[in-house]
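Researcher: Here's a chain I'd like modeled. Treat it as a single chain, no partners, no ligands.
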Amino acid sequence: MPKVKIINNEKWEWIKLGEACNFIGGGTPSKKESKYWNGNINWASVKDIKGDFLNSTKDSITELGLKNSASNIAEPNDLILITRISPGKSIITNVRTAINQDLKIVRPKFQTTSKYLNYYFQAFERKIIKKSSGTTVLGITLNNLNEIQIPLLDLDAQHAIVSKIEELLSELDKGKQQLETAQQQLKIYRQAVLKWAFEGKLTNENVKEDELPEGWKWIKSGELFSYVTSGSRGWAKYYSEKGAIFIRITNMDFDSLELDLTESNIQYVDLPTNSEGKRTKIQEGDFLFSITGYLGMFAIAPKLENAYVNQHVCLCRPKAGFNKKFVGYWIILKSGGHHHLNQNQKGAVKAGLNLDDLKSFPVPLASREEQDLIVGEIESRLSVCDRVEETITTSLAQAETLRQSILKMAFEGKLI
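Model: Modeled as a single isolated chain. Structure tokens:
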């Protein structure tokens, strides 16, 4: 029986999704058959479901691929819902597209619009996630999806809800855009600070353009290191729930000297006593570089009880006598060490660096006293950036919370 609620003196009738909509599944043509792929039919998967509207897909299939799979076609203005991996996310398609098995085409049995349904699923995404299950891949069953309730309103009421949501979200999005612009401006400012530092402008007002500051000298990076190595292959067999920390490029960044060691981003390994990989054990202060794929990611290792690097990371052990952060900041300067490293990349398909590349890029060195002074000047400025960025991040999180609150209130009848 439909549930009836009286909201603002109006009757809201709630029915099960299974009674209100049909959900049409999809599939994937065999990847072994090249004749099924790269055709003229869009083929959507979870990676394509971003934003409110689908305008293109990363993959495409042929008519033969469509006929020889469980895939189905969503027509323009259809709503597509994710039911596996990121259950609850939805999108309105502007293009004719086939879908894979992680998606469903939502075909309503009542008079409605795709926008109304899209906002409805956005409002109830968390409810769908709660009803989902799976240890490896999260997903909601069709039975559980069908049991969720949706308000069955007339078109005028639906249009009023959509109109109010869009009015409020438009203002919210303007605010978010300003915050995101500020984030980008902070990144530009960070790089400007580093550029000024290595032009000598933070410690000397009388430097000449395009010249190394007086008393500085260029050296090859290899002169700074006593030991350079990269990780071993085949470590996956040592993965474990606890043990030594295994540093990967996912733990590194382009704009920071620090490793990301949040628990959700850590991989542990349990190495046998005689493992060859012990040569890559990290010491505090080691320089870590990404050497495949995303080149130029960098970090200075903190004190870690037991940690190693994988084959995509190069470990360089610095000698004494220089400020490690001074050189580190040069490395993450886009027009500095980062630029020189990327100039050395090899590989037509997958970019990479070898160990000699890590020992041959140029580094400008000031006196040790000036290095220390420059690092202090850099960090006093960047600490201000950090505080502003923290405020922006908090505000963006609050904006997302407000967005969910607006959607929730809309389907509780509190906006109209």
